[in-house]
Protein: Sodium-dependent transporter
Organism: Thalassotalea euphylliae
Amino acid sequence: MAVSRGEFSSRIGFIMAAAGSAVGLGNVWGFPTQTASNGGAAFVLVYLVLAFCLAYPAFMAEILIGRYGQANAVTSLQKMSSKAWQKRFAFIVGFGGIICASLILSFYGILAGWMMSFAVESAAEIAGLQSIASWAVSDSVARNVFFTTLFMFLTVFIIRRGVEQGIEKWSKRLMPMMIGLLILLIGYVMTLDGAMQGLEAYLNPDISRVLEPNLLVSALGQAFFSLSLGTSVMVIYGSYIAKKENMVTIGAQVTLIDVSIAFLAGLLIIPAMYVAQAQGVQIFADDGSLIAGPTLVFTVLPSLFDGMGGLGLFIGLAFFLLMSIAALTSSISMLEGPVSYAVERHNIDRKKATTIIGLVILLISFGIISNLGVMLGFVATLSTEYGQPIIAMLCCVFAGWIWQRSSLLAEIKQGNETVEDSLFWKVWPWYTKFVCPVAIGGVFVHSLL
C-alpha cells in the first residue's frame, strides 16, 4: 500500500476513541428518551442484557474484520473474500457503510450545531449579550448554516491530524471531560424536587413489561445504534489496533464504557424530566406517552434551566457543552470512514481528502437545512433505520459465513493465545453466524413495519 497508515499508540487510546464514537447524541439523549418511552427501568434492564448478549458479538465482528484487514472497510472485507462474487459483495457492504456514515454525519452535524447554539445562548446571556443569545436559538437558516459549518470545521480539523495526533489525542481529552460534566450535572439534579421520583422510575423495573415486543425491538435497536454498528466506523477503528492487543478484552471494555455512559445519561435526563414536571412543565401526555420525544432536549431542559434563575444559565451551559462534546466524539469517527477509503484506495493526501469530503458532507447538510421539515427526518430514517441494520447484519454474515474459521481463530489468537479454550470462542462464532443476523434482521423488519 502506497499510503502509510496510522495506529492507536495505546489500548486506552483505542478504547477512548471507540467509546467516543459509540457515545454520542444517541446515547446521551436517545437512550434516556427511549427509556422514558418504553417502560422506564424495564427498558434499561432489557437494553443492558441485549447490549452484552447481541451488540457486543456484532461489535467484535466489525473490529476483528478491521484488524485482520489492516485497511479501510472495503479493502478489509475484500481481504476476507476468496471468490469474485464475494469481493463484489464486500465492496457493496464496505462502501455502503461509508455512504451510511456520511449520511448520518450530514444530519448529525445539524443536530450538533443546535447543541452548540444553545451553549452559545447560555454563554451570551451570562455575558449580557442578549441579541446574540436570541439569535443563537432562533429558527433561522443563517443560524443553522453557521453552527453546522462550525461543527463540521471542528470535525475536519481533528481528522486532518490523523489517527494518533487527531482521533486518539482528542478522544483522550474529550471523553474524560464529558464524563466529568455528566457526573457533576447528575449530582446537582439529584438535589432538586422531583428527582427522586424520576430515579425510582429509572431504577425500579416493571418485570411484566420486559418481554413486550416493541420494548425488545426498541432496546435491541438502541444497543446496535449506540455502538456505531453498520457504518464502517468500527471496521476502520479496528484496523488501527496493534496485533498484540487482546481483542476480546478490548471489545468488552468498549461495550462496558458505552453502556455505562448511557446509564449515566439516564441518571441525568430521567430525573431532570421529573424535576421539570415538578416545576410545571408537561412531560407526559394524558395516556402516559412522552411528549415530543427527542425534541424534548430543546424544550423541557431549557425550561428547567430557566426555572433555576441565574444558576440555571451555568447549568445550561454545562449541559449543552456536554452534548456538543458527545456529538464531536462521534462525528470524528463518522468522517474517518470515508476519509480512510479515499486515502488508501485512491492515494489522496489525508488533509486534502478530509477537507474535500468534509465540504461535500457539509453541502449535503445545507441541502437538508433548505428543507428541514422533510429532509431531516428522511435522511435520518434512511441511514439509521434502514442503512445501519442492513450493513451491521451483512458484516456478521461476513464474519460468520465467509471468513474461514481457522483464519478467524488465528486473528483472535494474536494477543490472546488461550482464546480457543475460552467461553468466548465456544459461543461467539455461533452467535455471530446465526443469532446476530436474525436479531438485526428483526430490527430492520420492525423499521419497515
